[in-house]
Amino acid sequence: MIDDLTRQRLARLATAARDGDRVALEDLLRLAYPLIHGVCARLIGTQGDVEDTAQVALTKIAQGMSNYRGDAQVTTWMHRIATNCALDELRRARRRATPAPTVDDLDGAPDDNLTTVEFSVDVTRALDALSVEFRTAVVLRDVADLDYDEIAEIVDCPIGTVKSRIARGRAQLAEMLAPGNPARTADVERGGDD
Amino acid sequence: MLDGDIGDDDERVRARAEEFQRIRDVLGSPPSPDEAVTERAVAAAMEATSTRRPRPSAVWRTRVLAAAATVAVVGGGVFAASQVSMDAGDDQADGSGAVETAADEMADAVEESAPDLPTDDLETADSSSGGDANRSTFGADEFLGEFATFAELDEALTARLDSQLAPVEGAAEAIDEPAATGSTPSDSGQTPTCAPDGLVRLGTALVDGTEVIVFTGAADEILVTTEELCEPVPPDEMTAPTSSP
User: Which of A55, A58, B62, B105 could disulfide-link B45, Cβ–Cβ 3.0 to 4.6 Å?
Assistant: First the structure.
């Protein structure tokens, strides 16, 4: 989530970086990377290389900063780049056979925290199962904490469509993650409903 | 009874709200990169903005070299390789258009290098990608244009190159050996040489500011090598601060 303070700081740094301040650019990239990485992680899930994609996105941001016009919020601009990079990675991943994530994929998960870990895996799997359109909308809203109009600008569709995708995506997530759903890892592992 | 139903509904609504909040909590807490990863990413991005060409990693360079070598084969090998130069960072800032940029530059290099190359002599870089040795143009742009992004192109070419790097390393050791047999002058004025193990040196390509050597063996083999290709970029070069004025 991006708090207001971070947004303001990003905006100040972007203005300075656009004007050639390389120290500001470096600070901006350092501040932005966890945000970019988070969006890439949620959009790509287990279906591709998150770090590689986030690296590519950050490089594009750095290279494109001099062309950033400032007519959109810098967070919108950066997330658009991250989203494009993540969707590119997903397209590539479709040609690869990626096994479905399991609890075993989380190396070193502490046993006493298994329920939380399992639920996290479930959320990842459920996100992976959403359509790219729904997933993108939900991630930009619930992970990147962007406004509807920012998301609409990024995915290039009307705000109404964005709201619909978010609502339907959330509903599908809730359904997939509902207690008692046989697809839910936690329930499968425990052999039943909570 | 009615009160009980309402109570059940309330309970369900509350349970659903709690469940969804739990989902949002997880969603909103994606895995965070550790500090080392962040610093490496920042350093590489800053490096990409410097006046030097970006050199994020040896792997990336391998991919770029693969792309150049493919053009060499698509364009007839000998003739194109010496002219290929591309900047992998030329793509659009929003992540689109990378392939078009690379494809245009490569196709221009191919056509400039070998304007009279008979199409019958063309070899396709990857028959599975729809290449056609008898098409009426060089086809480099068509081939590259089949990929939506440069990264997709990377993947296809890197996979192809992976199986061919090993023999190239052996060939590289013999690169300074005198030419053997079977050499023919190229349109670019270079004389391909034949390595002792039978690989034909097609020529050199300037890729990302680095001269690479392009070989070919059988008709559709792509073999590239360079000293740097076999050695990872030194860590200090990958992470050196570039933000100083």
Answer: A58
